[in-house]
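Incident log, support desk, overnight shift.

02:14 A customer reports that sequence design results differ from what the structure should imply. Their input is reproduced verbatim below. On-call engineer (initials T.W.) acknowledged and began investigating.
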């Protein structure tokens, strides 16, 4: 199960890395016009959102299984410090997974819609692109933290 967790986390972080730092900048550099590259990039980020949600869900299931193997202590039972530390590590890792998934959902159903409406109405496109970029960076950092933690 540990290898599977590392594999899924690597897919998630690698997909975000490849899309955010290679594919999208290459689109804008190659296609020349932001009006042409923008919709393609938006579609790629939407696909990445859904892939991230599926990979995040898979990681949560794997981590849940790891957490249940440690079994929480019963009331009055003495706690082995190593077991407690391992369970805390798993719960913290689950928090990073959930944070990245939440950022992906907010980006997909909040910021992406604001970008489309700003483009159509002449709204503050720069602001919404910046917010979206920060959310992608947040997802990338969380996915990287998950990969770092599960590969320990």
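02:41 Re-run completed on a clean worker. Output:
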């Amino acid at each position: 199960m540990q290898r599977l967790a590392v594999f899924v986390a690597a897919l998630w972080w690698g997909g975000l890395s490849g899309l955010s730092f290679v594919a999208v900048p290459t689109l804008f550099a190659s296609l020349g016009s932001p009006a042409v590259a923008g919709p393609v990039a938006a579609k790629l980020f939407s696909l990445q959102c859904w892939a991230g949600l599926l990979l995040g869900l898979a990681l949560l299931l794997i981590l849940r299984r790891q957490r249940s193997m440690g079994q929480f202590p019963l009331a009055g039972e003495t706690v082995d410090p190593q077991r407690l530390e391992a369970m805390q590590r798993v719960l913290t890792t689950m928090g990073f997974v959930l944070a990245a998934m939440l950022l992906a959902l907010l980006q997909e159903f909040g910021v992406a819609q604001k970008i489309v409406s700003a483009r159509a109405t002449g709204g503050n496109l720069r602001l919404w692109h910046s917010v979206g970029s920060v959310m992608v960076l947040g997802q990338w950092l969380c996915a990287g933290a998950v990969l770092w933690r599960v590969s320990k």
